[in-house]
Amino acid sequence: QETASLPAMMAMFEAVNVKTYERNDLSGQKRVGFIAQELEACLTGNFAHIVGQGTTQSTSAATEPVEGEIPMAEETFKTVDYSRLVTVLWGVCKTMAKRLDDLESRLS
After folding, report:
1. Which helix (H) or strand (E) holds 38?
2. Using an 8 Å Cβ cutoff, are 13 and 3 in contact?
3. Whether residue 51 has pLDDT greater than 70
4. Three-state DSSP class for residue 63
């Protein structure tokens, strides 16, 4: 066990912005969150597991298969484990708290 790098967590926080978007796998439902590929680009080492991969089998809207219909190929997509982002935010909060303490001590 070792303490995770606070500068690395701060760099991740600064590198990625929250976005609004439409989910292309959920008929364009509107969402707010992260674009997995943007997050993945700045995650390294022990943080790389925050972005994963999922698969889905696209099927016809019909409830029963239509004779002669060719099923669509399985699709893969990136996933973000938002619960694991809490650890990054915790590190960012610790960094900000230290900076605030440093600034307040200069004013005293």
Report:
1. helix 36-42
2. no
3. yes
4. coil
This prediction's pTM: 0.71
Per-residue tokens: 65? 């298969």
Rounded Cα gap, residues 43 and 4, in angstroms: 13
Give the residue with greater pLDDT, 23 vs 98. 98
Backbone φ and ψ of 104, nearest 5°: -65, -35
Please report the pLDDT score of residue 74 as a whole number: 78
- Write b or e for each residue in 8-47: b if 16 or more Cβ atoms lie within 10 A of its Cβ, otherwise e: bbbebbeebeeeeeeeeeeeeeeeeebebeebbeebeeeb
